[in-house]
Every structure is written in C-alpha cells, then in structure tokens.
Specification:
Layout: H1 4-11, H2 18-32, E1 35-40, E2 64-71, E3 77-85, E4 88-95, E5 101-107, H3 120-123, H4 127-138, H5 153-164, H6 193-196
Antiparallel strand pairs: 1-2, 2-3, 3-4, 4-5
Helix pairs in contact: 2-4
Length: about 270
C-alpha cells in the first residue's frame, strides 16, 4: 500500500474515530484509480486544486463526510458522501458526467482496530478485501463494449433487401417443384378441346369418363353383341358410345303378382 502510510501519517493527529480511518482508506483507493480530490462539501470553491491529500476539515462531521473528486484527464467529476449509521459507513458516489450512482456499505469493525487509531501498522484489518469492494462496488467503471456478431453473406443480403423494401418477403427455396401438364395455348384445339374430344383420344384427358376405357374393372359386357330380350346382336355398332338402359347381363323382370298396391291407390284425392 505504497503512499497510504504517508497519507495516514499526515492526518493521524486529526483522526479521532474508526470512521475516519475507513474514509481515509477509501480516499486513497480513489486516488490510486486516477482521481484527485478537489475539496470537501457539495459546492465547488474558487480555490479548489487537485490534490492527493485530504482537504482541510474533511472529517469535521463524524455523521456525514462529503468529498469532491476530478479525474486526472479532467473528463470526470464525482461527489462522494459517507453517512454513519450505527457501526457502519454507507458510501454513495454520484458521477456528474454520466449521472451514474453507486454505493458501498462497510462494517467499520471488520476493517479497523479501534484501539490502534494512531498506529498505522496496527490500525487496518482485511485491507485487501476492503480495497476489492471499493473498486468493484463504488468506483465508476466504463460499460463493457458489445460484441459484434459477424453476419453471413446471405444474412447481409436479406437485411439489405428488407431495409430497402418495407414490403419485402424473404425468398423461400423449395426442394422440388412440379409443373402441371398444361396444354400448349397455341395448339389449334387448345380452346374447347375437351368438347371436341370428350374421351381424350388425342391425349390430355377428356370431359367424359367412359366406363369401358377409364381403367376401372369391366363387367365383360359388349354392347355390339346386343341385349338378350332387349336388343338384337349388331344393333349397336362396334366402338359406338352406348349408355345401357337397364341392368347389364340380366333381363329385367316384370311386375311380381305378389306385389300388392298400396291402400287407396285408386283414390283420386290421395
């Protein structure tokens, strides 16, 4: 702790309580971090000068300590206050440049031997722990820089398109795409072809499904052979379109004598 002994020796005669010892130690940690003390009190004075020493009257009040500091490069100013609450000191630091506020609570008896206030070699305890708390909790620190994410070429292209066009939709890349087999629009029978070729004889499909050609199971019926009891053989030309008008391969029976008419079938008002 180079420099602390010299500082403490210079103010030892004015130290009258353990709180003074803690304030002296915190002041030295602030100086080591690149700051100088301007004076005591909230308001700056015309005769303020940067110094590593504690100013005159720095411990005039044992209930509230107020010290002002300025960085060595003159870019940062902050105000430190230490309030005595029972056996603890509550430090509060406000950086006037960034408006950041930090605080530290110190249990005085953990770091000061109250019986050795005038002896530098014996007055301090656990100095390393107290120094670490001052640096990590009280002193202002610059925010860590954000890590930049390196974008791929595709991400850069997509971002530039989306930024330039608010209606841009990201491009999708399907694995496969199957085009429908549309007829050639310039073909002579493209328009109305299904009407001219209902069974799709030229290919491409027609508009009528022929049960004898559609690939469905056939019943074995040949209309050119005629229908027994209905059409003689040769009545239907081979290959002609024929819609059967009765059950194929069976003779439609007449009325069954057992069929009884419904009651009142001859009633004209029924």
């Amino acid at each position: 702790m180079a420099g602390l002994e010299l500082l403490y020796s210079g103010v030892a005669s004015s130290i009258t309580c353990p709180q003074d010892v803690v304030v002296c130690f915190v002041h030295w940690e602030i100086v080591k971090s690149g700051y100088k003390c301007l004076g005591s009190g909230d308001e700056p004075l015309s005769g303020d000068k940067k110094s590593e020493l504690l100013p005159t009257g720095w411990n005039g009040s044992k209930e509230l300590y107020t010290l002002r500091y300025k960085s060595n490069d003159d870019k940062s100013h902050f105000l430190v206050k230490a309030i005595t609450v029972d056996s603890t000191l509550i430090f509060n630091l406000m950086d006037s440049t960034t408006e950041q506020v930090s605080d530290l609570t110190v249990n005085v008896s953990d770091y000061v031997d109250a019986e050795q206030l005038q002896t530098f070699e014996s007055v301090f305890k656990n100095t390393e722990d107290l120094a670490q708390k001052v640096k990590s909790q009280l002193l202002p620190s610059a925010p860590a820089p954000r890590k930049k994410h390196k974008k791929s070429k595709r991400e850069t292209t997509d971002d530039s398109q989306s930024d330039s066009d608010p209606l841009h939709i990201p491009t999708r890349h399907p694995q496969t795409s199957r085009q429908p087999n549309w007829p050639d629009p310039m073909a002579p029978f493209a328009a109305g072809g299904a009407d001219l070729d209902p069974f799709g004889g030229r290919g491409g499909g027609g508009m009528i499904v022929d049960p004898l050609r559609a690939g469905y199971p056939r019943s074995g019926f040949d209309p050119s052979g005629g229908l027994p009891g209905v059409l003689p053989p040769g009545a239907v030309p081979p290959g002609a379109r024929f819609d059967p008008f009765g059950p194929v391969g069976r003779h439609r029976p007449g009325p069954d004598p057992d069929h009884m008419p419904p009651p009142g079938y001859d009633d004209m008002f029924m």
